[in-house]
Design brief:
alpha/beta, 295 residues
Length: 295
């Protein structure tokens, strides 16, 4: 990356965007018989930006889109089941009100208009307000969420013809024969940076919750990735170089906290093998902006 960072950026962006373009071509060829895209993936896979990019590509093909987040269909947090340690399990798909989701879509397709719920994350419960969407036959729906491919959702009759997408990181980094950065570690680094930038969550707090996040992925997300029609690899090859300066700013504060010092040191050591890269040359609409902006 240090020899030609701009070329590496260009190739990485091209690699990702070609995948999105291919998905758009596939969906457009089946539209309007196929009206819904289900987009799933683990934490920090890049679902939000990919949903926006699919919207852009489908608009180029004359198809309007209506984005829908499964997050707005959460039950109130106080309904979350408790884990063995007594903490609420906020990673379970059982917290998604699938009946309301399906009913909203049925009304939308039948009447061309429907009211959709809004989840208030600050209060941890559904808002008293709703938002109304008017629909037409030239509009596709992109439903994005951690559990979009879980059978509790994807097996609902309204999704029988949906295009099912799974996005995550599939490419790993090796130093000789030794794996240097795994796919999960790369998503972990993404999340530490993003949570600090956009969610007011300190690195030590993200590290503390990561074990529960991974546990939820293993139970509720990864087992159903094989149900996807298309897999998208969201890795951009220059990521370790891009993240190194951010990590070196955020993680040192964890080194004095026993509970997260070991993990912080390990991540810093792994990233030290890569030349640091400035974010200046990263395109403004890059998926990387989902994680790095704001610091």
């Amino acid at each position: 990356a240090c020899k030609s960072p701009q070329e590496l950026i260009r190739l990485s962006e091209k690699r990702y965007r070609e995948q999105i373009s291919d998905v758009a071509d596939r969906f457009a060829s089946q539209f309007p018989k196929q009206k819904i895209i289900l987009l799933s993936g683990p934490s920090s896979a890049g679902k939000t930006t990919t949903s926006h990019n699919l919207d852009t590509e489908l608009e180029k093909r004359g198809i309007h889109t209506f984005p829908l987040s499964l997050d707005d269909f959460f039950f109130d947090r106080d309904r979350a089941p408790l884990m063995a340690d007594g903490k609420p399990d906020l990673e379970t798909p059982e917290l998604i009100d699938t009946e309301t989701l399906e009913n909203c879509l049925k009304v939308l397709f039948k009447e061309g208009k429907a009211d959709f719920p809004i989840f208030d994350f600050k209060l941890g419960k559904r808002s008293d307000q709703v938002w109304t969407h008017e629909h037409d036959e030239n509009t596709a729906i992109i439903i994005e969420g951690l559990h979009a491919l879980n059978p509790l959702i994807s097996d609902r009759p309204v999704f029988a013809d949906a295009l099912k997408l799974y996005i995550s990181i599939k490419t790993e980094y090796y130093l000789g024969d030794e794996r240097l950065i795994s796919t999960r570690e790369m998503r972990f680094i993404r999340r530490i940076i993003r949570d600090n930038n956009f969610r007011g969550c300190a690195p030590q707090d993200t590290i503390a919750m990561w074990e529960n996040v991974v546990r939820g992925e293993e139970r509720h997300i990864r087992p159903f990735r094989t149900n996807a029609d298309v897999w998208i690899d969201s890795l951009h090859l220059y990521e370790p170089s891009l993240y190194r300066p951010f990590a070196e700013k955020l993680l040192p504060e964890c080194l004095d906290i026993p509970e997260c010092a070991g993990i912080a040191k390990e991540l810093l050591d792994k990233l030290s093998h890569f030349e640091p890269m400035s974010p200046v040359g990263i395109p403004s609409d890059s998926l990387m902006r989902e994680f790095i902006d704001g610091i």
